[in-house]
Amino acid sequence: MIKDFNKYKEAVDRVKKWAKAYYVDDNPIATDEEYDKLYHNVLAYEREHKSEIIFDSPTQRVGGIVRDEFSKAKHIKRMWSMEDVFNNRELEEWTNRVDKNVGDVNLFCEPKFDGASMNLLYENGKLIRAITRGDGVIGEDVTENVKTIRSIPLTIDHKEEIEIRGEVVIRKNDFEEINKERVKSGDTVFANPRNAAAGSLRQLDSSVTAKRRLIFYPWGLGENNLDYNLLSQKMEYIYNLGFLKPPYSKRCIDIKEIEEFYEFLNQKRDEISVMMDGMVVKVDETDKQEQLGYTVKYPKWMCAYKFPAMEKVTQVLDVTIQVGRTGVLTPVAEVEPVNLDGAVVSRATLHNYDEIDRKGLMLNDSVIIIRSGDVIPKITKVLTDRRDGREKEISRPTHCPECKSLVLDEGTLIKCQNLECPARVINSIIHFAKKGSMNIDGLGSKIVEQLVNEDIIKNVLDLYKLEADELKSLDGFKEKKINNLLNAISASKNSPLERLINALGVEHIGEVASRSIAQKFGLELINITKEKLTEIDGIGEEMAASYIEFIDVNRDLVTKIIEIIEPVVTKQSEAKDNHFKGKTVVLTGTMSQSRGEIKKELESLGAKVTNSVSKKTDFVIYGEEAGSKLTKAQSLGVTTLTYEEMRELI
Description:
alpha+beta, Helix Hairpins, D-amino Acid Aminotransferase, Chain A, domain 1, 6 domains, 5-stranded mixed β-sheet, 5-stranded antiparallel β-sheet
């Protein structure tokens, strides 16, 4: 038994040393029996002397704090995404850009582990906060959960403020053990180690996280004052503070050495205990990193050289059909289950029936199935040379598998138009009620599901027939909640007509088209011809056909909805001449004003705000983290404006 604080402190230091040897160095220097005995002696002393517990005592890693939710926290320095390269040509393009801007560089290469990114903030040598990546600026504070990860030091021998970035992962064998335990307890198994790591970090009870065998590999820094010229030197310093060092890393001087190390890691992929999805390549010189700078999305001085996607041969057993919110029928291949990169895959997307025809796919065909990262598994090739006569053609559906009504076959798209179809009724009502549609406050997805599942409503029209007595028997519905919901439904009456049209969820008809239809046709919207619709700028043949066919199928329902809601028809006043009048504008990225507000303001000036960039786009207005839309605009020569430049023009 430990009798005094000095003996207790000595014991804590010894347990920490043994734990580091076991969890970080992978070189145990004490038996499990010795460790357990000393650990429990420390625990016994702490139970008797709670005020003397040392901050980084190993006993503080067991968790036990239970939260209602996670709070948000801001990174001191932003956490960036990485540019992906997938082959030698793309890698060469990246290195050429680097060489062109800063000359010859050394490159620091290391494995890219597939887990959950984490930012650790240390102040005065103590772990103060652990934040998930989030949007790169703000993430979730998961400090109590991260304290349970034994490869993360609670204290370090570095007193200045520092942010240490890295990946929280689960070893493959630990992942298998966790899933075995979940099967025994009747829980759903994790799909792959990455999902298990992310899910474990987001446990509200930190004692659950403590049992998940998470580990942490640092790969970079945020805020720091380390006086080193090379990133590799900085990382060596971090490893010496007590963090796990990746099994392999290498400084490379040219693309040949990068490729050699890439092939080496790819061959070691199965041997390394943690899932890798590629290799990270970084400019090693910190001064040249600063010279290269950043795009709106990622640093120009680093990239992720991704490994080839995992692929396997399997057999197509069946094709089932999913019916989406707008009634689109999507074929899904049911395949013989195969293990792809840590996940058991039994289904693959087929996109549409034209894709089936293009591939020449038949039932019982042997196929190559591929999965890369978060990409949904898909069939890349049909192995026709393996056919043995048992194959059968896959026919296009003529009726909805859910409501049995006739479907509309547009070629690429096959749709069920019935708004009362059971497969789409819940999501149709959710879409109808959401912000931007009818904006029925308090009618979220869970309440919609409850109302439909309890057979209280069968379509959007039934919302306006709801009575308090019907809701009283429902779980969670008290008088105040009932009154608030009924008042919100009532308040949605007399909404602008364009919001009602958008709320119906017609395929291809979004906010812009809804507004155009409302302004041109008003309440005659159910008696429009296809020819009249296509006279509206921006509405083509496919959009017009979709709208007409939707009205034909749902005419009675839409007529009754209009009668009950009595939507207001608003005519847009002619805008005065300005820079944006008559122009097509696309918004992208994060700005100091919400995009919804900017959109309304531009539309009031006579602009047409759309979601996709093309040669016909006049302006792309961008903020922080503008991605592919800005890149496409630049490649097409479309005029781009920052938010500030837009304000000046207005």
